[in-house]
Design goal:
494 residues; Rossmann fold; seven-stranded parallel beta sheet; six-stranded parallel beta sheet; 39% helix; Glycosyltransferase; UDP-glucosyltransferase activity; UDP_glucos_trans; transferase; EC 2.4.1.-
Length: 494
């Protein structure tokens, strides 16, 4: 969500169109256009949505801002895997903007600038469908494009890639701004009262909203949040039993006074990767095969989850002292050619050899979490990771880093009841003693057993949601019925 790191570059790739196969009896007049975001965590759920639409017999085209705009190799790789592994999808890279991109700017203003510069390209692409477009689904960070879709008279929807609680907070925050007499930054840990949500410390909001209200960052974030309810409907990557209370609140007029909240469709959980990262099975899975059931603590902090050298040493000491098996994916804070052993306490790797595995590179997170040996998950609380932990039925330890992760953490520890918090993140350093203690709590204590039981219950709920007659299948059906009810429709001036 907001605040994810994106590296921009002016280098553009040529526009490419990949052939598609129309499923079922529907014609190209039943094409749904998806307009995904420019980060892995926003792109992957949209591709999973594409698969669900294909299963319902719709033709799906994906409009892409050139992946080269994002300097992250992982993003370009996942786009390439989606193209290679989903031949039924039609991928179209929008022509690059003729204007120079704003390369040196904070994340949100830069992101919105990129999207805005491609509005005309998106419009031209939509107009190229001579038999019309059934609907357009845009990423929640690309809501400015909703205006383009509206002017063409095409039904417009948002894919919200975080949970329902984050959505409820995001749509209310712009109006809350008019009510508070101090800035969110000045409120500090003072609780915010938002409809349908428990009190939340202002300090746990998006980092962009803790900036000066006159700053470009702050204004851009508010603009992005305000635009979400302008859609005809919002698809959320969650499932109803996980967020039932919040979903009910989103349907209450008190949630968004003075505005109309569009229908919310809980269509998740969309979890796991796209295509195959490698031909060979990852070494960490082979290592897990040799470990006892539910015995391994898995630590992974997402693509932006690098820690300082000091923090890495504290984690290493805590894991060693806990006595538990662990699989630790480390984000290297320095260059790839630096000796990683030098970052750890002397002899740490030797002393934990056999019961611990440390890797620097990518691992198939969903597969690791679903492995029988995995017993707990230390996570940065990115929503995709939360859902992968939930669908695996694994209790979690929360270590939020950026974006809406602090908000997700409150939900995981509170209403969901599947996690405990590493409180040291608030001080900027989680010390070894806390790492040791929290690992033992989740793996050894009665509290940990309760977390595990609730995680197992949510796992079952996730499974039921996508079974025949499940809530997510029903939500997809309601969404498509709403789309169909808006056809035929007089298109706007093209």
């Amino acid at each position: 969500m907001l605040g994810e790191p994106v590296k921009t570059t002016a280098t553009a790739l040529p526009s490419q169109v990949y052939p598609s196969r129309v499923n079922g009896s529907r014609s190209m007049a039943n094409t749904v256009i998806l307009y995904p975001g420019l980060t892995v965590s926003h792109f992957v759920p949209m591709v999973h949505l594409a698969g669900a639409l294909l299963d319902h017999g719709y033709a799906v085209s994906v409009a892409l801002i050139d992946p080269a705009v994002n300097g992250d190799p992982a993003f370009r790789a996942v786009v390439a895997r989606a193209v290679a592994s989903m031949p039924s999808l039609r991928f179209h890279t929008l022509p690059p903007s003729e204007d120079a991109l704003t390369l040196i700017a904070p994340f949100i203003p830069r992101y919105l600038d990129i999207v805005g510069r491609h509005n005309d390209r998106l419009r031209d692409f939509l107009c190229s469908f001579t038999r019309g477009v059934h609907a357009v689904v845009v990423d929640s960070l690309s809501v400015e494009a909703l205006g383009v879709v509206k002017r063409l008279g095409i039904p417009r929807y948002v894919m919200f890639t975080s949970g329902a609680a984050a959505l409820a907070a995001f749509v209310q925050l712009p109006s809350v701004l008019a009510e508070v007499r101090r800035t969110f930054q000045e409120l500090g840990d003072a609780p915010l009262e938002l409809f349908g949500l428990p009190p939340m410390p202002a300090s746990h909001l998006l980092g962009e909203l803790l900036e000066d209200p006159e700053s470009e960052i702050y204004k851009a974030a508010v603009t992005a949040l305000y635009g979400i309810p302008e859609a005809d409907g919002i698809l959320v990557n969650t499932f109803e039993s996980l967020d039932a209370g919040v979903v009910a609140a989103l349907g209450d007029p008190r949630c968004l006074p003075g505005r109309i909240m569009p229908p919310v469709y809980c269509v998740g959980p969309f979890v796991g990767g796209v295509g195959s990262e490698a031909k060979d099975r990852h070494e960490c899975l082979t290592w897990l095969d040799g470990q006892p059931e539910s015995s391994v603590v898995f630590l992974c902090f997402g693509s932006g989850g690098n820690h300082s050298a000091e923090q890495i040493k504290e984690i290493a000491v805590g894991l060693e002292n806990s006595g538990h098996r662990f699989l630790w994916v480390v984000g290297n804070p320095f260059s790839d050619d630096q000796d990683f052993d030098a970052l750890l306490p002397n002899g740490s790797l030797d002393r934990t050899r056999g019961r611990g595995l440390v890797v620097k590179q990518w691992v198939p997170q969903a597969e690791v979490l679903h492995h029988r040996a995995t017993g707990a998950f230390v996570t940065h609380c990115g929503w995709n990771s939360v859902l992968e932990g939930v669908t695996a039925g694994v209790p979690m330890l929360c270590w939020p880093l950026y974006a809406e992760q602090k908000m997700n953490m409150l939900r995981m520890v509170g209403e969901m009841g599947v996690a405990a918090e590493m409180v040291g993140w608030q001080r900027g350093l989680v010390e070894a003693a806390e790492v040791e203690g929290e690992v033992r709590l989740v793996m050894d204590s009665e509290d940990g057993m309760e977390l595990r039981a609730r995680a197992a219950a949510h796992k079952e709920g996730a499974s039921v949601a996508w079974s025949d007659g499940g809530s997510s299948r029903a939500a997809i059906a309601r969404f498509l019925a709403d789309v169909d009810s808006r056809q035929p429709q007089t298109r706007g001036d093209r």
